[in-house]
Structure formats: C-alpha cells, structure tokens
Amino acid sequence: MAPWALLSSGVLVRTGHTVLTWGITLVLFLHDTELRQWEEQGELLLPLTFLLLVLGSLLLYLAVSLMDPGYVNVQPQPQEDPKEEQMAMVPQAIPLRRCRYCLVLQPLRARHCRECRRCVRRYDHHCPWMENCVGERNHPFFVVYLALQLVVLLWGLYLAWSGLRFFQPWGLWLRSSGLLFITFLLLSFFALIAGLLLASHLYLVASNTTTWEFISSHRIAYLRQRSSNPFDRGLIRNLARFFCGWPSGSWETLWAEDEEESSSQVV
How far apart, in Å, are the Cα atoms of 48 and each of 27, 42, 54, 206? Predict the structure, then answer.
C-alpha cells in the first residue's frame, strides 16, 4: 500500500483537530495568561483540571468520529416466521422502503449517507469535522462532546483574554500578544459554533427529532402527512430514551401507537 493511501480525509481531519487542540493549549500555557501565573505560583489544580478537560474533549471527539454511528446491517438475516405479538404491534401499513443505493430495507428514521456509503439508523447528519455520521449509536456521545467542548472553549477564551495586554506600543504588542490574539479569535469562533450546535441539538433531542427530519420533513414519507411528530413522547421520556435508551422499543412501534391515537381521535 502506498504511504499516501493512508492519508484519507478522516485521518487528515482528525489529525488536524488534534494538532489544533494541543497547539491552542500550548499557546495558552506559554503566554502570560492566568494558566502561566497559576503554574508559577505552584497552584497546579486548575491547570491540571484544564488539561484533563482538554484531553477528555479530545478523547470524546475521537470516540464519536471513529465509532459505528448505527449502520443498518447489510448482511442477509436468516428468515424467521414473525411472532404474532410483533405482527400485532407493527402493522403492515408502516412505510418502510428499500434503499436504492445499498439495497437494504431501511427501518424508520434511517437514511443513506453518500459520504459513508451506508444506511444509518436514526440518521441525524454527516459531520465533516468528525468525518463520520451522527446517528442512533453515537448521537448521545456527540451531544456530550459538544457540551464538554463548549466548556473548554469558554474557559480557554477567558484565559486568552487574561493574557492580552493592549496598553503597549503596536510593534511590541504584535510581537508579544499577536499569536495570543489570533488564538482568542479562533476560540471565539469555535465557541460560537459549538454553542449554536449544542443549543440546536438539545432542542431537537427534547422534541425527539433529528436534524434531517427537522430540515426535510416535507420529503420524508412518515412525516410529510403528519401535523405533529409521531415520535415525540414528552420532554422527560424523550431525554430518557435518547441518553439512557429507556423506554426501549422500536421506532415502528411508536409510529404505530401514534397512528392508533390519530385514528381514535378522528373517530
């Protein structure tokens, strides 16, 4: 295998994220910020805490970007006669369809990702910064990563600001604080993006909706003829289902329950 064949987009993106993370951390330690002052005074608890948060956010990033987001199994399963209970709970009217790309029968809320070339369960979106899909398996870790990353970015933003000294001649300030000021601008931009992403995902999680469903509900068969979200079971149950997997059950079952409720209300 040629050496450049190992330089896939995923490797480059993850390497870039890792280098940028530790580069910004190094800048905060080398300049005259509160981190440097704590270190010089022998107060190591806060610097170590900051380093552990940075390391934790980086490990979460790698975990989310490398783990299976919930790919639909493409291997043919042994055919079994469905149980009567399953037939009763999941009516035949549920609009399942076969993917035209990988030819698997898609469960509800799944979608084919052209970048990953696989169908993903409870597909949310394909994240280019992760170079991975966000789906049923890694979506909770993605939200936790955003929260932890936002904490690190806001703390880093405060530390960078503490090291900036504006009452200096321009040339001297540029040499002493130019790199730190660029770091401050980068942290401001990243904190804004992380904050917006976290807020939007918490809103979607609270209503049991995915980014794909929120943006393209008019194109999705199981949503476009509905006036409400068939998977929404209230804030507490939505959060418990998302983060803890409780109450368990298939999305087809929730869809069928909502269908029965809608039919009873019409009657």
Answer: 16, 12, 10, 34
- Only one residue has tokens 């022998």, namely 42
What's the Cα-to-Cα distance from 241 to each of 199, 221, 235, 250, rounded to whole Å? Answer: 19, 23, 10, 11
Is this model's pTM higher than 0.85 or not?
yes
Residue 127: active-site member: yes
Beta bridge partner(s), residue 120: 71, 111
Q: For 12-41, what is each residue's pLDDT tens digit?
A: 999 999 999 999 999 999 999 999 899 889
At residue 84, the pLDDT reads 47
Partnered with residue 113 across adjacent β-strands are 118
Tokens 């049991």 correspond to what residue? 208
Q: Which of 116, 127, 133, 244 does the annotation list as catalytic? A: 127
Give exposure, 192-222, as e/b (b: 16+ Cβ within 10 Å): eebeebbeebeebbebbbbbbbeeeeeebeb
Query: What pLDDT digit, counting tens, does each position of 104-114 carry?
Result: 999 999 999 99
DSSP string, 247-259: S---HHHHHHHHH
The whole-angstrom separation of Cα 149 and Cα 198 is 10
CA of residue 229 relative to chain centroid, distance: 21
